[in-house]
Each structure stands twice: as structure tokens, then as C-alpha cells.
Design goal:
This protein is an alpha+beta fold and 344 residues long. 22% of the residues lie in helices and 51% in strands. Strands 1-3-4-7-8-9-10-11-12-13 form a 10-stranded antiparallel beta barrel.
Length: 344
């Protein structure tokens, strides 16, 4: 009895321990994944915080760059101008310089020379409108229109030299007027690394006019010119500093014949051709170089020097003395512009 009873006690203990072990093992297995989960959970937060912080920095950077170089949809330029005009007309040659190189005995016929003794003081009003300039993803953001008017006034002493000698100097008052209506397109690019700004290269095409009107009430040998012509140009604007940019342009003036329209003023403008020949062919070019920049807010400044040159080749017999085989006339306008810019 004693031996049998002692054998049963160990057997009960074994079954008891096995049952406890079976119950403890699933609980340990179920609790094991909780530790890694609680460990990895906090590590997600810095990652998500870092991503949100980076997105905010990108937005701030984009806004900063837009402030530095965003193109404007409207630009108004009001400048004071000083313009100098030079004019020469020579019979039987293709250029004024060619006439001066002829032997003295061959220099026959009426010649005209004019050079402004005082500048023509006036104003320039120019408007550039680009209605889609703020749409960065649009290829049409650089499409726009330029409208402009320039006018100057002055009086100068004029003489006419011919076979009969030189006429006395006479004072002549005149007005210089120019109009511009052109379509334009600009391709914008970022310039600079630490503080990038917007520069652009562009093209313009449209109509221009240039009129030099002499006071009809004065008896003067000085003749005027009136031109209406198509013109094309290329433009470049490069930011040099935060408040200084370099502006340059060059253009061609296509068939800028004088005496346009010929039936204006009772047909008197047609004399701008008939005085020198029966027909005329003309060519011209323009150039501009200047600096512009910001002063405060939407206000800025503009300082520029502009040139416009015309050459007229006459054929046939004119009404002036010695103009039996045509000749040439050359006209140059040099202008200094200083003004204010308002951009929106």
C-alpha cells in the first residue's frame, strides 16, 4: 500500500506541471508580439514628422522664388526723353559718305544736312500686357502686347546748301512722334543660384510709325518725314543684382518708306519722295541698351538709350536741282530715356 501510494504522487505532479506549462506557453506566445509592436510604434512618428517638415520647406522655397522673379502681367513705363535727329540727303549716290568722297567738281546738286542743335524734349508712355504671365504651367504665359507713344518738341537752325550757295540760317520748330503696336512673346528662365530671379528672351512683331513734322507756318527749307512700317525685334532681359537688370533689344524696320500715307495733308507728304526721285526703297534698324530695376513694391526705374536709323534710296528724276538720277537720304534718331515703371 505504501509503495503503490508513493508511485501515484509523482504521476499527479507530472500531469499538473504539464498542464501549467501548456497554459503558460500560449500566454507567453501571445504576449511576445506586444513588445515589438510597442517598440516600433514610436519610431513611426519622427518619420512622419520629417516628411511634413520637408513639404513645408519646399512650399516656402517655391513662394520665395516666386517673389523674387515672378513675371508681371502689366508693366507701365513713363519716361522723360531727349532725342537728337541727324539727316542728310545727297544726289546721285548710294550713301552720304560716298558723296563726300567725290571730287569737288562732281559734287553738284542740292544737298540737305540737319543736326539737332538742341535735343527734342518730350515723353514716352509704354504699356506691356501679358494676361497669362502668372500661369507658370502654361506655354502661353509669355504671350502679350506692347503699345507705346513717344513725342518730343524742339526748334533748330536750318540751312540749305546748293549750287547757288548756302541759304541764311532759319529757325524751324518741329515735332518728333513715334507710335508702336506689337504682339510679343517671352520665354522666361531662372538666372542665378543663391537668389534666383526671372530673366527672359523674347520677340516682337507689329507696326510702328515715325513722323518728323515741321511747322507749316514757317518758311524753312527743312522737310519732314512720315513713315508707317512693319517691324520685328528680339529682346533680352538678364537680372544682374536684386534691383538691377540689363535690358537689350535689336530690330529690323521693314520698308519704312517716307511720305506715308501719301495722300495725307492734301498730298504734301508725297513730296517727300518726288523732291528726290520718282520712287524710293527704304531699310532701317533699331537698337536699345539700358538698365532697369525695383525701387519699392510695384515701382521701379528705367534708364535706356535707343537708336533708330533709316536709309532711303531714290530712283528717277526729282524736282530738286541735281536730282536727275535719284540719290540717298539717311535719318537717325538717338534718344535717352529716364523714367519710372509700375508693375502689377
Amino acid at each position: 500500500m505504501t509503495t503503490t501510494g508513493s508511485a501515484r504522487v509523482p504521476s499527479g505532479l507530472v500531469w499538473t506541471l504539464a498542464l501549467v506549462g501548456a497554459l503558460v506557453s500560449p500566454a507567453a506566445a501571445a504576449s511576445a508580439p506586444l513588445a515589438p509592436a510597442s517598440f516600433h510604434g514610436p519610431r513611426e512618428a519622427p518619420s512622419r514628422l520629417s516628411l511634413r517638415s520637408g513639404a513645408g520647406q519646399g512650399s516656402a522655397k517655391k513662394a520665395s522664388e516666386a517673389e523674387l522673379g515672378e513675371p508681371t502681367w502689366l508693366r507701365l513705363n513713363l519716361s522723360l526723353t531727349a532725342t537728337w535727329r541727324r539727316y542728310c540727303a545727297r544726289p546721285g549716290v548710294a550713301g552720304c559718305g560716298e558723296y563726300e568722297r567725290l571730287p569737288e567738281e562732281d559734287q553738284v546738286g542740292d544737298t540737305s544736312d540737319f543736326s539737332s542743335t538742341k535735343p527734342y524734349l518730350g515723353f514716352l508712355l509704354e504699356v506691356d500686357a501679358l494676361p497669362l504671365a502668372h500661369r507658370e504651367t502654361s506655354v502661353l504665359r509669355g504671350l502679350g502686347l506692347r503699345l507705346g507713344i513717344q513725342q518730343g518738341y524742339s526748334s533748330s537752325d536750318v540751312t540749305l546748301t546748293g549750287d547757288g550757295g548756302q541759304t541764311p540760317a532759319r529757325e524751324a520748330s518741329a515735332t518728333d512722334t513715334a507710335f508702336t503696336a506689337q504682339a510679343l512673346y517671352r520665354f522666361y528662365f531662372r538666372f542665378g543660384t543663391t537668389r534666383p530671379q526671372q530673366g527672359y528672351v523674347g520677340a516682337r512683331a507689329g507696326l510702328q510709325t515715325r513722323a518728323f513734322d515741321v511747322d507749316d507756318a514757317e518758311d524753312t527749307p527743312l522737310s519732314g518725314t512720315h513713315r508707317v512700317f512693319p517691324a520685328v525685334a528680339v529682346d533680352l532681359s538678364v537680372p544682374l543684382f536684386s534691383s538691377v537688370r540689363l535690358d537689350a533689344s535689336g530690330g529690323l524696320l521693314l520698308s519704312p518708306k517716307p511720305g506715308r500715307p501719301p495722300d495725307a495733308d492734301g498730298g504734301r507728304r508725297a513730296q517727300e519722295i518726288t523732291d528726290f526721285g520718282t520712287s524710293v526703297s527704304s531699310f532701317g534698324w533699331s537698337a536699345e541698351l539700358g538698365v532697369s530695376g525695383e525701387i519699392w513694391g510695384p515701382l521701379g526705374y528705367d534708364v535706356a538709350f535707343r537708336l533708330a536709323h533709316f536709309r532711303d534710296r531714290f530712283e528717277g528724276s526729282g524736282t530738286r536741282t541735281g536730282w536727275t538720277k535719284g540719290g540717298v537720304a539717311e535719318e537717325t534718331y538717338s534718344s535717352l530715356h529716364v523714367g519710372l515703371i509700375a508693375s502689377y
